[in-house]
Amino acid sequence: MSRERLYLFDTTLRDGAQTNGVDFTLADKQRIAALLDDLGVDYVEGGYPGANTTDTELFAKKPALKRAAFTAFGMTRRPGRSVSNDPGLGAILDADADAICFVAKSSEYQVKVALETTNEENLASIRDSVAAAKAKGREVMVDCEHFFDGYKANPDYTLACARAAYDAGARWVVLCDTNGGTMPHEVTRIVTEVSRTVPGSHLGIHAHNDTEQAVANSLAAVLAGVRQIQGTLNGLGERCGNANLCTLIPTLKLKSEFADRFEIGVPDDRLGSLVQVSRTLDDMLNRVPNRHAAYVGESAFVTKTGIHASALMKDPTTYEHVDPAAVGNRRKVLVSDQAGRSNVLAELDRAGISYDRNDPRLTRLVEEMKRREGMGYAYESAGASFELLARRILGGVPEYFSVVQFDVNTEQRINARGERVTVALAVVKVDVGGATLISAAEGNGPVNALDVALRKDLGEYQKYIEGLKLIDYRVRILNGGTEAVTRVLIESEDEQGERWITVGVSSNIIDASFQALMDSVVYKLVKSGAPA
Fold first, then answer.
1. Nearby residues of 528 by Cβ (< 8 Å), 6 or more positions away
2. Phi, psi for residue 460 in degrees, rounded to 5
3. Which helix (H) or strand (E) holds 55?
4. Where do the DSSP E strands lie in 433-506?
5. Residue 491 region by backbone torsions, left for phi larger than 0, else alpha for psi between -120 and 50, else beta
6. Residue 262 and residue 221: Cα distance in Å, rounded?
7. Is residue 316 pLDDT above 80, yes or no?
8. How far is Cα 459 from Cα 434, in angstroms, rounded to an integer?
9. 47-67 burial string, b = 16+ CB within 10 Å, else e?
């Protein structure tokens, strides 16, 4: 039996950017768009061209997506203006986008209070805007803002707004629970009624999470007939957030009520990258991942010792609703030595490191990993550092070089233009095959200076690290007080574009940073097959 297609619309870059404390750079947006495209979503909403510099530049440098439709967001024609005399609308129509998503008021109350116009003028604005975008050859959708609240107050007018969009040629008419207060049973009833006016094959749902039911409301809408679902990675969004695609995607893929009836564009192999995608976004935003998030949280498949753990080790289905590996997560049984060993073996398998299950060094690796994680090391986020730790204990990392000494100084001074500047200078002394090499470098900070100095001259190994560059640097304080322990994560990239993350932990931020830098360089040498 063939399954119906559901379409996923991601608005992380637009609605997610409304999250308090979130401020995407142009590079952030381009990278996230590529992640979403690779994951398999159907629409990536880039933002509001013309509304701010970042979004305008993003559409001027449209990401090269392989399958997702890059979508521009904006308002319909302003009341009292023509299509040709509305600069905001013009910026949206002229943007380099595959699709356009208009936001339009669909509540009579909002039309009166927010737009200060008439019901008919609002309908005309919807029709004119859709027609203008269609004339540009764009796929068009209309987000009917305040739809559910508007429907409960005046269903006839709210339906008229949806019908105006559909009749004008909108591919999708999206029903928005803008204030996030609608209950799942209300969504079911209203979507069922709306689908008698606009076919479900042209309906979407955009749910906010103000009652913690955005995912439930989205799923209820699907069962009632909608075929497009809008949401954000990790549920980002203003106030309490939007429907969380990191929860919706595996539910649609793994729960038979949906998987037997519907298919989405996320293939099975990409579903396994969901944890990585979720945590990559958190790392980019320097946010602490929600340990208890469904499917992708670190604690989503954690069980403590006791009868639960005993049953889990015999048969995982006793306490797991899905296989954690399906979404890229892993099972953890806390405290148990056997569980610790299992977790490490799983990591070795994932890193492609061969081992003998009877090798006593595995026990040493388990004990060392537990000791380090107790100190604050996070190997879940730093796969390259874990791989080096494992290879060192199991016997597989040559000592290419050793750092004899390093020194970092930071000073403020007046430059030749009379400007006060802060400059960092680092000196690194290394031993390479018995030869002492000393390198010095300035940087825009102590870590940058150390990075440049360390990679400036490694003698015979220099050619292996020429393409290595540091692309991200994240610091997290693990406890409070003046003796706080600091964790540093460094993301690096090689000449082929491959990326990896290393970790360092210390009460001294420079020391923690240098640990992570050293791991990055050594990992590159190992990966490149540099001879001992």
1. 464
2. -65, -15
3. helix 53-60
4. 435-443, 469-477, 486-493, 499-506
5. beta
6. 13
7. no
8. 11
9. bbbbbeebbbebbeebbebee
3-state secondary structure 242-291: ECEHHHHHHHHHHCHHHHCCEECCCCHHHHCCHHHHHHHHHHHCCCCCCC
CA distance 486 to 474: 10
For the chain, give the number of residues. Answer: 532
State pLDDT tens for residues 363-422.
999 888 888 888 888 887 788 999 999 999 998 789 999 999 999 999 988 988 999 988
**Phi, psi angle pair for 15, to nearest 5°:** -70, -35
Block residue for tokens 């999250």: 19
pLDDT, tens digit, 9 for 90 and up, residues 463-483: 999 999 888 899 988 876 666
Q: Is 438 helix (H, G, I), strand (E, B) or coil?
A: strand
Q: What pLDDT is recorded for position 351? A: 77
Under 8 Å between Cβ of 144 and 102: no
* Alpha-carbon 129 to chain mean position: 32
Which three-class secondary structure state does DSSP give residue 138?
coil
Which residue type, as a one-letter code, is found at position 208? Answer: H
Q: How many CA atoms lie within 13 A of 179 on its CB side?
A: 11
For residues 353 and 388, the answer to whether their CB atoms sit within 8 Å is: no
Q: At what angle do helices 184-194 and 214-224 cross, to 10 degrees?
A: 30
**HEC-encoded secondary structure of 204-241:** EEEEECCCCCHHHHHHHHHHHCCCEEEEEHHHCCCCCC
